[in-house]
UniProtKB/TrEMBL annotation:
Superkingdom: Bacteria
Family as reported in the entry's similarity comment: Belongs to the MsrA Met sulfoxide reductase family.
Reactions the enzyme catalyzes: L-methionyl-[protein] + [thioredoxin]-disulfide + H2O = L-methionyl-(R)-S-oxide-[protein] + [thioredoxin]-dithiol; L-methionyl-[protein] + [thioredoxin]-disulfide + H2O = L-methionyl-(S)-S-oxide-[protein] + [thioredoxin]-dithiol; [thioredoxin]-disulfide + L-methionine + H2O = L-methionine (S)-S-oxide + [thioredoxin]-dithiol
Enzyme superclass (EC): oxidoreductase
Gene name of the record: msrA_3
Limits of the MsrB domain: 171-286
Native source species: Priestia megaterium Q3
Name the UniProt record assigns to this protein: Peptide methionine sulfoxide reductase MsrA
Keywords: Multifunctional enzyme, Oxidoreductase
InterPro entries, A to Z: Met_Sox_Rdtase_MsrA_dom (IPR002569), Met_Sox_Rdtase_MsrA_sf (IPR036509), Met_Sox_Rdtase_MsrB_dom (IPR002579), Mss4-like_sf (IPR011057)
Active site: C11
């Protein structure tokens, strides 16, 4: 059994990755949904907005849960576009496919308005689904195919800062897509067991990225032999992608965009070392960098 959900939230590049992580998602396609409201007001034959169409299994995830994640990706107080993308084609809209979805969406919108999370009114329209056509293949899964450019775009658009400001702690959805250890480490500042984790003794060439956001963090040529049982690095690939957060008797390391816990900064003989949990990382071998959208980092090898 499967159902469809269609969401517009500005540039469709940014609307795929969050849902891709959820259990119960069958497929996500970027494309263009017809906005009947704009078409009617403008007296045009049609008007389309950038959107994603999600095919999902209702036995594993509910429409309400999809909506909860949707609100966390957009500015629901903006009716004229989303972040740096302006104009009707970038409006945020929830398209319902049946009356049940309409009821759930209206209730979800009402709850968000009553929560007081936003000072301005919630203006995201809830409209009947009309039609959807897919974008070109090069636009599909853009966050995977062009990971480096995607990260620059998302951060430069203002979306990342806005979402971090308004949804700083609401990450319960991550329990559906992370293992208990990954959640414990990245969201609860936990520490995995030494010597039994994935990368403490990795010998392959490649880079390590943030498990959730894909931010490039470390490269294997900077990985040191570990006597502690966790991966240790001399330096990050980009210092700007790592945050140093003072903690009791130590300095914690977090990813800049995701604000996910990574590990600890160690100091020894006036030198700094980055001790990181494997559970916070995803390793991309050198031979797969181009395939995964990290071609710019091949120059490091």
């Amino acid at each position: 059994m499967k159902e469809y959900a269609t969401f517009a939230g500005g540039c469709f590049w940014c609307m795929v990755a969050p849902f891709d992580q959820l259990t119960g998602i069958i497929s996500i396609r970027s494309g263009y949904a017809r906005d009947e409201q704009i078409a009617s007001e403008a007296k045009q034959e049609s008007e389309y907005v950038e959107a994603v169409q999600i095919v999902w299994d209702p036995s594993q995830i509910t429409f309400e849960e999809l909506l909860n994640l949707y609100w966390q990706q957009i500015d629901p107080t903006d009716s004229a576009g989303q972040f740096s993308d302006r104009g009707p084609s970038y409006r945020a809209i929830i398209f319902y496919h049946n009356e049940k979805q309409k009821e759930v969406a209206l209730d979800s919108k009402r709850k968000l308005a009553q929560s007081g999370r936003f000072k301005n009114p919630i203006v995201t329209p809830i409209l009947p689904f009309s039609s959807f056509y897919e974008a070109e293949e090069q636009q599909q899964d853009y966050y995977r195919k062009n990971a480096f450019h995607y990260k620059l775009y998302k951060e430069g658009s203002g979306r990342t800062d806005f979402l971090t400001q308004h949804w700083p702690k609401d990450r319960s959805y991550l329990k559906k897509c992370l293992t208990p250890m990954q959640y414990f480490v990245t969201q609860e500042n936990g520490t995995e067991p030494p010597f039994t984790n994935l990368y403490w003794n990795n010998k392959k060439k490649g880079i390590y990225v943030d498990l959730l956001t894909g931010e490039a963090l470390f490269k294997t040529s900077d990985q040191l032999p570990s006597h502690t049982g966790w991966p240790i690095f001399k330096r990050p690939i980009l210092y700007g992608n790592i945050k140093k957060v003072p903690a009791q008797h130590s300095t914690a390391l977090k990813s800049k965009e995701g604000d996910n816990y990574l590990g600890l900064l160690l100091t020894e003989e006036n030198s700094e070392y980055y001790q990181v949990n494997s559970a916070a990382l995803r390793f991309i071998p050198k031979e797969k960098l181009k395939e995964e959208g990290y071609e710019d980092f091949l120059i490091l090898f």
